[in-house]
Specification:
1 helix; elongated; mainly beta; 197 residues
């Protein structure tokens, strides 16, 4: 089953003031690279038996590791996601320092399951149980993230493989059949501009 990769492209606009002492303007002063916002992406993924249990609700959503890629590269081990409710602050202990992330969610979102494919008696179903937005709390962060600012959006995606029920020819989300644990996958992706402190 293909991994879902979400990527948000952000273009940062930089303004520079030009001082004039005569009729010819001076060149704009360059913005230091460390203070120019760049896209930071972070993601985690679980598969197999663990993912199947998470999708069923038997255990909380968790990942062996989460990875930050962008102006700051970092890894967080053994991550269990929180509720994602408005105002909730989650501190991730990463290899590059603590990252304080404040969740903001315009509304609870639970996308309906969708059949995305069918092959050899197997059904493939995708669902987005939650989406939202976030901001980086630089004052509560440490290391490379200390004093940083940023924001973006996140999504949680469930992928399930099931066996087509006997006597059925078409896959359905109302009667999906028995789950194939090896085909289960849970993915968390987030992306947005980050300005290093």
């Amino acid at each position: 089953m293909n991994k879902i990769i979400a990527a948000i492209l952000v273009t940062a606009a930089v303004t520079a003031a030009a001082a004039c002492t005569n009729t010819a303007p001076h060149a704009a002063a360059p913005v230091p690279a460390s203070h120019a916002p760049q896209v930071e992406e972070f993601y985690g993924q679980a598969a197999g038996m663990q993912a199947a249990a998470e999708i069923s609700g038997a255990v909380p959503v968790s990942f062996p590791s989460m990875h930050w890629v962008g102006p700051v590269v970092a890894t967080v081990q053994n991550v269990t996601l929180g509720s994602g409710k408005d105002g909730t602050v989650r501190v991730f202990r990463s290899s590059a320092g603590d990252i304080a992330v404040r969740y903001g969610q315009a509304r609870p979102v639970r996308g309906a399951p969708v059949v995305t494919g069918q092959a050899h008696g197997d059904c493939f179903i995708s669902q987005t149980p939650a989406t939202g937005n976030y901001t980086i709390d630089g004052a509560a962060s440490t290391g490379r993230f200390k004093g940083a600012s940023g924001h973006g959006s996140w999504s949680l995606i469930f992928l399930t493989e099931t066996k087509l029920p006997a006597g059925r020819k078409q896959c359905s989300t109302t009667d999906p059949g028995a789950v194939v644990p090896s085909g289960a996958q849970v993915t968390f992706t987030a992306s947005g501009p980050l300005t290093a402190g």
